[in-house]
Amino acid sequence: MPISKNIFMKQPMMRKVLYSLIPVIFGAIYFFGWRTIILMSVVVLFGFLTELIFKRKQKKPVTEAVIVSAILFTLTLPVSTPFWVAIIGIIFGIAFAKEVFGGFGHNVFNPALAGRTFLYVCFPEYLTVRWNVAADTFPGGFLQYMTPAVDTMSSSTPLTILRQTGEALPLQQLFWGNVSGSMGETSVFLILIGAVILLYTKAADWRLMVSPIIGFVGLSSILTLMGVANDPGPLFGLLSGGILFVAIFFATEPITAPKNKEAKIIYGLFIGIITLLIRVYGIFVGGAMFAVLIMNTFAPIIDIGFKNLNSRKRKQVKAA
């Protein structure tokens, strides 16, 4: 029996997110080579097949959201990530962070980040030390399968360099993105273009996008004034480590985020705060992915809390 007249569930909102990712994808190719697209295609295929297995039993179409999850997942990886590692990650993310909860609209955790975190814990070498040099002159990676692997610490990621050598890369370099790192997280400029597209097409709530940045910058400013050694400062921290990428493309994911306006702000603020706390006091250089998954857990509670609070306020107004 056929699954459905259409193999994909039509989700216009997901297509808007895909449009916003186009600049980031082209940037990833330029900085790291065409293996970006090949790896992304493999991940999309296995993400699709994983969801298809579940949907066949339900006789439902595959969601277009799985393509978005697969692409975002790929962009959080280094370009040299082995295909088999990436395949394991996307299968875990779609199967255990989405489908076991009932599929799209019912998942508690962001599938892309869940898959990435699974790889980070199980196969840390591929995600923490195997980086590639970022191209800095045209045509860059457009004429390469993959840019060369780094061979010195001076070519590692900005946060790793800062933590191990105390040297901070120029802010201009961080802004444009010609630094080693995960494929989609290096260029602040291209990430901001994606943010503009999301806001213009109304595919993301500005509260979820801005509040993590405010929480991160606010706490970083306080720690800087206190002289905390491991805090690189609000501007450097904001331009490195993927916090902007996570704030714009993951914190804004509507299914795992709160629905109440006030709850969205609290949710986002804590994502930014937890990200910085992990960076400064934890053993991980990054932290944004853990912050989002932690807050995914608390999103329903925050929503219920503000719903009850607003309900009490309305009753008090009526009683008055």
TrEMBL record:
It comes from Alkaliphilus peptidifermentans DSM 18978. GO terms for biological process: electron transport chain; transmembrane transport. Keywords: Flavoprotein, FMN, Membrane, Phosphoprotein, Translocase, Transmembrane, Transmembrane helix, Transport, Ubiquinone. The chain crosses the membrane at residues 37-54, 66-97, 179-201, 208-229, 235-253, 265-282, 288-306. Pfam families: NQR2_RnfD_RnfE (PF03116). InterPro entries: NqrB/RnfD, RnfD_bac. It comes from the Bacteria. This is Na+-transporting NADH:ubiquinone oxidoreductase subunit B.
